[in-house]
Amino acid sequence: MAKPEATGTERDAAGPDATQGPPSPRSIAVWVLVGLVGALGWGVLALSRGEEISAAWLLAAALGSYAIGYRFYARFIAHRVLKVDKTRATPAERLDNGVDFHPTDRRVLFGHHFAAVAGAGPLVGPVLAAQMGYLPGTIWIVAGVIFAGAVQDMVTLFFSTRRDGRSLGQMARDEIGPVGGAAALVAVFAIMIILLAVLALVIVNALAHSPWGVFSIGMTIPIALFMGFYLRVLRPGRVTEVSVIGVALLLLAIVAGGWVAESSLAGTFTLEKETLVVWMVAYGFVASVLPVWMLLAPRDYLSTFMKVGTIALLAVGVVIAMPTLKMPAVTEFATRGDGPVFAGSMFPFVFITIACGALSGFHSLVSSGTTPKMIQKETQVRVIGYGAMLTESFVAIMAMIAACIIEPGLFFAVNSPPGVIGTTVETASQAVTGFGFAISPDALAQAAKDVEEASLLSRTGGAPTFALGMSEIFSAVIGGAGMKAFWYHFAIMFEALFILTTVDAGTRVGRFMLQDTLGNVHKSFKDVSWKPGVWLASAVVVGGWGYFLWVGVKDPLGGINQLFPLFGIANQLLAAVALAVCTTLLVKSGRLKWAWVTGVPLAWDVAVTLTASYQKIFSSDVKVGFFAQRDKYQAGIDAEKVLPPAKSMAEMHTVVTNATVDGVLSVLFAVLIVIVLLDAARTCFKAISAPESVKLSEVPWSESKIVAPAGLIATAEERAELAAAGLDSGGGRAKEPVA
């Protein structure tokens, strides 16, 4: 059925703005108040001069900014720039096969998408960036998500939905050209394997020898399977009903995990790292091949309750306890660039370190992977793409607060490596005092005792620091100091749950990406539900990240540990690919005047990532430059000297190899991204100078039979539309009238 050119997209582009009339005085008052709250928060943060201020002001600044960004900027992009069309059928509706393509209630899909994109980054990145002080990271987290990260996620989701859910790499090949597309395919797939292996390593480290965590997280799988069958077979469409049951079972699993840890079953659920790797690879494969409604979507939805619920309670705890920010607004490390947590100047490394809380290339893989194959209506890209990313950014804000309310001396003792602070509380106290943040050996010992840990020294990676801050806030509200240990270990388990959902969804996305790529050679792979292709591609993806993970677990200097330093830059380079593809598509689809929406964040991201890449390749500082580090350790080998952290000559050779591999890959990734950018610029110039030559791979319009709300909460108009179609709040295909 052909769509009249002037009635569908253009009519809906006017959308609610055209039908709702001018805003009411009440609405104006509400949004003015929201704006004032945000402005007041920013004012307090900006004007503080050395004194400690309440973390609640940081909360106010972020929440006020998020609300304004979602209400006005996201709406502008959806209806004026993208011109979302509620009359247009999505791939989930047209290609519904019950496996990969499946129209999914937007509340469940929001949960899946948020759980899939919110991994380790928003929890640990801001914690590490707190080395520079709370202000630089907070500004980037909030401004970055509103103008870059959430925009990337929503626009990528929109364009992928218009192309049958094509992967980012395939869209680059189809729309930019074979040269830039090939570079994008190689870069995207290689970076994705590294990202998945890094995320999996964080989970393994968190769950090793933790019966509570293993049991509780393991139980989310059968609970999710039950929820999937409940919604599909037993009680279709009863999302609220199954949500209540699922959350109750999840809370029971968490409490039972504590019982298991204290019982005779503890040994059964106390797993070594190698065993966890095997189980994770097996789970990743199964989650990738099972129908999406059966395991992946309900498990991610279930996890979202745990994630968002815990973070929301943490925010409430901040408002009740009113902890103060003990970390300075800006530390000396921001200008000196010699911080003990990570080396490098504030620009560009604070932006690289935070990554997922503000702008993450990994998100574009999900936005062009599972989500566009499940979305009911184009109008939902705003709440799912933009809204889910704002939610993740809020997680990053809470992580920043958690890191900055503990004593700075404790922060640096926890996050500095042994080579910097030593291995005893006495040497750590002396080293941290040298940084300008005094803390006594007794205070360091007491902090560990409070959370029932033998030591907190050099617990690097960010996760333990987040858990410390979380225990500080929760214990101030519930239980007092005696509950600190409980909340600390609860937070560690929570972080593992947070990250695991990214690995299973990421594996499925990788399968889609590999099938898209192989489809250029063998057409059968184009069908992402073709069983041989599904199994082969899934095996290759889990085999890729599983190999690096296995070697990394066996060898502290090998496997993914070798590639870990590339995580931040690789993730941001991936964002450059996504933003380049989105900008090219805006230009090619006749939206040149709006190309700045993705073009400006693209320019910023390119400046940040290529500067970081340049410094990592050419810097003479051994703490920053890969090749400088290689030369230092090679010189040590030549002089037959063992340099820390290596403990033997064999490890010296491994350090040299790792630094060389990281340096070469940094060069390769940077070159591939530059090729993508140049080819994208060529394509845009051609589209502007010769519009008649433009060819888009967009699927032709077809009419949608699905009725569903655009947001999580249906408007009065949408409720009336659902009622007229004989549907509940979840939406679906309009029911045929009874004769």
- Structural Rg: 25 Å
Integer average pLDDT: 89
Work out the helicity level: 55-70%
Number of helices: 30
Structure description:
The protein is built from 30 helices and 2 strands. The protein is mostly helical and 739 residues long. A two-stranded antiparallel ribbon has the order 1-2. Helix 7 (134-161) packs across helix 27. The protein is globular. The relative contact order is 0.14.
Notable characteristics:
739 residues; mainly alpha; two-stranded antiparallel sheet
Summary of the model, kept short:
With 739 residues, this protein is mostly helical.
Helices and strands in order, then pairings?
Elements: H1 9-19, H2 25-47, H3 55-82, H4 91-94, H5 106-117, H6 121-129, H7 134-161, H8 168-175, H9 178-207, H10 211-234, H11 239-261, H12 273-289, H13 296-321, H14 333-336, H15 346-354, H16 361-367, H17 381-404, H18 408-415, H19 418-421, H20 425-435, H21 441-450, H22 463-477, H23 484-518, H24 531-554, H25 560-563, H26 567-588, H27 596-618, H28 626-638, H29 649-689, E1 706-707, H30 716-724, E2 732-733
Antiparallel strand pairs: 1-2
Helix pairs in contact: 1-3, 2-3, 3-7, 3-17, 5-13, 5-17, 6-15, 6-17, 7-15, 7-16, 7-17, 7-26, 7-27, 8-9, 8-26, 9-12, 9-23, 9-24, 9-26, 9-29, 10-11, 10-13, 10-23, 12-23, 12-24, 13-17, 13-22, 13-23, 15-27, 16-26, 17-22, 18-20, 20-21, 22-23, 23-24, 26-27, 26-29, 27-29, 28-29
